[in-house]
Write a structure and sequence with these properties.
single chain; 208 residues; mainly alpha; 3 domains; two-stranded antiparallel sheet; two-stranded parallel sheet; 4 strands; elongated; zinc ion binding; zinc-finger; zinc; DNA-binding; HARBI1_dom
Amino acid sequence: MPRSCCVPFCTTNKLKNPNLKCYILPNGSTEPRRRTRWLQAIRREDEFGHLWDPKSKHVYVCSQHFITGWGGRASDVHIVRNSDFLSQKFHHAGDQILADRGFTLKDDFAVLGAQLITPSFTRGRKQLSAEDVANSRVTSNIRIHIERVIGALKSRYHILDGPLPLRLVKRLQDERQKREEAMIYRIVHVCAALMNLSGSVMYNRYRI
């Protein structure tokens, strides 16, 4: 009997692809946490919009949905270029992106009309020019404030301070309604907007 994949919109089975491997869904009694992670990754919902949890013991996921994460040798440049980060969904003309040294994607962001700002480095020079030193100092100061804001954002909105459920990355409801942004993008956007309405993280030396 062919084993069909339970992932939504997946039509593969053992008859169509004899070399296909199918993995049974982990048992909820013996491996509840592992089963939950699988169900979240499957991104399937029941008729009430809740996380799908089948009662049958014969539920399979085909090998086409198992991928490995980026290895430790993968550079940041490689990961960004092979992700959805370099798109107009996240960047617009006139945006400025702050990054570390070695993040050589200036041309990639220029295509989007955005500017990549990185600290200056000597590369082939004995020392930095006075202008490069001044620019690097300004960049470092800005970075400190950005890290403080990110830290405050995580401490204030606890949904961002730990691992996120995979179903927040992309939900079936988002796909049905043809939304370009996943739920997590909207959550971060709202949290950041609320953060911008609060007081500044910068110390005002002239405050009385």
